[in-house]
Amino acid sequence: MVNMLCLGIEGTAHTFGVGIVKSDGKILSNFSKTYVPEKGGIHPRDASQFHAANARAVLDEALTQANVELKDIDLVAFSQGPGLGPVLRTASTAARALAISLDVPIIGVNHCIAHIEIGRLTENTKDPVTLYVSGGNTQVIAFDTGKYRVFGETLDIPIGNCLDVFAREAGIPHPGGPKIERLAKEGKKYIPLPYVVKGMDLSFSGLMTEAVRMTRLKKDLRDVAFSLQETAFAALVEVTERALAHTEKKEVMLTGGVAANTRLREMLQVMAKGQGAKFFVPPMELCGDQGAMIGWTGILAYKSGSKQKMDETQARQRWRTDEVEVTWREK
Ligand code: AMP
Ligand code: MG
């Protein structure tokens, strides 16, 4: 098929998204709805019910924006993992129902890899070391001999979650990241906080706990926010820099919801420059979770020969980035 149309369904955490992508790399539409918990963190069952209730509306809007009909779709791709079990099952059920009723092939896509591939598409980067930072993931990833290898990752909570939970404990409403960034800009004094890099891996839970303790000790919230960001981001940049030096790659890409943070961007930019590498951040609407990245990665996988049977489409809650055979890139 010369120019095929893929409908990509994202559903791993808060966001249910549908993106329609052409095999020449054109994104025709990318629409999503995001579940916002009334209070506290994400509840997997509530999120999955939100996704199921909104699936039809999101699908219809994506089709309308792309100006295509269901019968024009040649391939259905979906986020098979990693993510929250009930949420993944909703997305995969929707994808199976669509693929069966349209009688088209189905492809399960790894969510983390989709973040990288959509960035490679729109930023035209060839082979970046990627720092993927979001509410649910924190990984430093680079391609090597047929797979996306994880060079470093969090051993406990993801950085976005660290910011969000800290914010919640400090009485700041969800999502905490953007508000902490604003507070941090007014911070003046660095309060020493635990900086944890173990080998190439990261840990943020001790940092989060200590930052919360500082607010209980009535330290200026702006200083705590500033110190939290400086400490966490320095650790992220350190691991990314070491992956870059080790792999001798010439590009650094930042993606995921936390990529919105200007201080993190600035620190990575400085590091990349020092290493003689180029620095990229995809447009924010493609950094967060959305269906276009799933659709595009589905196209890459399908065109390089990946086929899936219906009984291979079950959700893979803990599907690791480095388990995927990347058939669409040269070893
Ligand atoms: P995602 O999981 O990709 O949907 O991204 C959501 C995460 O990004 C949440 O943890 C937010 O707090 C975080 N986030 C969004 N904007 C910012 C920002 N400006 N600075 C830091 N974190 C942010
Ligand atoms: Mg994500």
CATH class of the largest domain: Alpha Beta
Tally of contiguous helical segments: 10
Tell me the count of domains.
Answer: 2
Distance between the termini: 25 Å
Largest sheet: 5 strands, mixed
The succession of helices and strands, N to C, reads EEEHEHEHEEEHHEEHHEHEHH
CATH superfamily of the largest domain: ATPase, nucleotide binding domain
Helix/strand-derived class?
Answer: alpha/beta
Q: Count the E strands.
A: 12
Strand order of the largest sheet: 3-2-1-4-5
- For this structure, the CATH topology of the largest domain is Nucleotidyltransferase, domain 5
Shape: globular
Uncertain runs = none
CATH architecture of the largest domain: 2-Layer Sandwich
Helix content: 40-55%
Radius of gyration: 20 Å
User: In percent terms, what proportion of residues is strand?
Assistant: 15-25%
Q: Which hetero ligands occur in this complex?
A: adenosine monophosphate, magnesium ion
Written overview of the protein:
With 331 residues, the chain is α/β, with parallel strands linked by helices. The chain folds into 2 domains: 5-116 and 286-323, Nucleotidyltransferase, domain 5, CATH 3.30.420; 126-283, Nucleotidyltransferase, domain 5 (2-Layer Sandwich). It is built from 10 helices and 12 strands. The chain has a 5-stranded mixed sheet, sandwiched between helices. α1 runs parallel beside α2 and α3 (111-123) crosses α10. Residues 111, 115, 134, 137, 256, 289 line the site of magnesium ion (MG).
